[in-house]
Amino acid sequence: MRLGELFFGYAKIGLLGFGGVAAIARHVIVEERKWLTEREYAEVLGLGQVLPGPNVGNAAVMIGRRFHGLAGAVTATAGLYSGPLVILILLAVFYDHFGQEPGVASFMRGVAAAAAGMVIGMAVKMADKLRPPLELIGVGLLSLVAGAWLRLPLPLIVLILAPISIWLSLRRQTA
Amino acid sequence: MILQLFLTFSLLSLLAIGGANAVLPEMYRQIVEIRGWIEPATFAQLFALAQAAPGPNILAASVMGWRIAGPVGLGAATLGMLLPAAILAWCVAGVTQRLSRAPWLRPAQFGLVPVAIGLIAASGVIMAEAAGTGPLPWVIILGSALFVWRTAFSPLWALAAGGVLGWFLL
Q: What is the ipTM of this complex?
């Protein structure tokens, strides 16, 4: 993969990432451009998730580094953030003019609902394709419940569940 | 002031395990309550704007920096928010590359995957609870989830369909 492809792939992810970039990032990296397999991407994203910062942003640094070292990490990161940043500034400038239009507001409500479904669908799809063993599915469900319904702080969930999950995964490997 | 802006967002960057939504309460505490840089209503508006715009939601930090101190503030907040996390990710990627022959690395890394997927699903559920204001939004949520799960088409089609349905029916 060339550096330019890395930039434009990530620019696409950034610019098309309405309602969060997670689903479109997976689509572009795994399904469209086939930079990584489902499992490789899941492993990178898993690390990106437990580190501070946006998971897809962390994954961009790691994927960029894997293919092109420092230049790759910088290129992927720049691709991911520069387009959205420009749009966001324009929006912030013009927000007062059109934000209150009723049509725009209902459109955005529909987009917000679809974005929520998109994130859930992506999580189900990853679990479906990776087929983790039963005890790891259990850990996934626990983190879902802890995050969505118990509303525990994410660092706390990671701190408790990540070591357990790593231990379970290692035990399965050596068994 | 600019340095302070940079340092505040750098601190937030290192606290942001789970991304923008996880750090939101602390961001509010730092820049609205402690520093008084932004009014509460403006904070909510800017965050909603960053969510509506394409791209990572963490860019909320950038618009706040822009609102606080113009273009320089934008630069300081963006760099502050991205740099520490990116450097950490870079170092961790280096460690995993060095250990890539170790037989335990990939299973250990795979252990993080269920936690990540669970937390992604959780953020989807939280978004759904906020967006699910009636029967039609829930239909859109379920339809979009099924579409992304069962097809290989770009998720953008679901967003476009959701927006059009919302435009005419909500």
A: 0.84
